[in-house]
């Protein structure tokens, strides 16, 4: 456990059969567990689904920063322990995927299969993340909401889904400033490239073909570097690919988790 910020009891919801294999869903920076709404019903037919809000987001506590990637992994270990779950599948997007990579490398006994969506092992330049953290601390998360959502979805999708655009911007804007900024700093200081060869969990890396934040080469590098990885590039999707192309991605997650 990290000495500077002990694990927090994250807000979570558990659905699905009590005796089914467990899958944990981990959200992106600036979102909440609601980002998985399009996947939950299908996953719940086969799994005990554990959704949670990353620290500093949604209904979870907002400890004072700084945080690092080990803090986020510690929170998941603590959550699994509290639920009496020894080993789970893990599905994470962006920041959630980074958490999953660190967890699978550091605590391989806790991770069965891994799905990483729209994420990267290192996101340069770190200065951009420090700058975004400073903006949010000064002006609130609303200051970046429009720009963030413009990367979450393709322009065509945003043009024809005005309500979803507004709802997504509201979720970003409602993220506590300290939580959002401290998680920006997690990304700024993180380099998971040395971890990748240690990841033994069978890994599916899913890229949005039009993702400006973590384009397909990020996911291809992950799939190439872990012990058992493959990549799927999904057309007509940006950073929140699971929301923009839910049918394709839900079936891919199910196929991978069911082996």
Automatic annotation (TrEMBL):
GO terms for biological process: beta-ketoadipate pathway. The keyword Iron does not apply. PANTHER family: AB HYDROLASE SUPERFAMILY PROTEIN YCLE, MONOACYLGLYCEROL LIPASE. It comes from Nocardioides albertanoniae. GO terms for cellular component: membrane. The keyword ATP-binding does not apply. This is 3-oxoadipate enol-lactonase. The lineage of its organism: Bacteria, Bacillati, Actinomycetota, Actinomycetes, Propionibacteriales. Residues 21-244 form the AB hydrolase-1 domain. InterPro entries: AB_hydrolase_1, AB_hydrolase_fold, AB_hydrolase_sf, PcaD/CatD. GO terms for molecular function: 3-oxoadipate enol-lactonase activity. Keywords: Hydrolase.
């Amino acid at each position: 456990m990290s000495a500077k910020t002990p694990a927090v009891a994250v807000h979570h919801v558990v659905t699905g059969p009590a005796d089914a294999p467990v899958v944990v869903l981990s959200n992106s920076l600036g979102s909440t567990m609601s980002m998985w709404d399009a996947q939950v019903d299908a996953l719940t037919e086969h799994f005990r689904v554990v959704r949670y809000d990353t620290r500093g987001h949604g209904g979870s506590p907002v400890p004072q920063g700084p945080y690092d990637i080990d803090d986020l992994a510690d929170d998941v270990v603590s959550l699994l322990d509290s639920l009496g779950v020894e080993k789970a599948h893990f599905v994470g997007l962006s920041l959630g995927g980074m958490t999953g990579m660190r967890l699978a490398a550091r605590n391989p006994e806790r991770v069965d299969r891994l799905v990483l969506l729209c994420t990267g092992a290192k996101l340069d330049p770190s200065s951009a993340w420090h700058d975004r953290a400073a903006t949010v601390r000064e002006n609130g998360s609303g200051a970046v909401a429009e720009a963030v959502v413009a990367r979450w979805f393709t322009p065509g999708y945003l043009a024809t889904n005005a309500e979803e655009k507004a709802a997504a911007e509201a979720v970003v804007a409602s993220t506590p400033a300290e939580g959002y900024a401290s998680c920006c700093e997690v990304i700024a200081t993180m380099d998971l490239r040395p971890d990748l060869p240690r990841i033994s969990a069978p890994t599916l890396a899913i890229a949005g073909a039009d993702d400006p934040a973590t384009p397909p080469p990020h996911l291809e590098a992950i799939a190439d570097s872990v012990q058992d990885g493959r990549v799927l590039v999904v057309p007509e999707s940006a950073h929140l690919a699971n929301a923009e192309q839910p049918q394709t991605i839900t079936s891919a997650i199910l196929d991978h988790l069911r082996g």
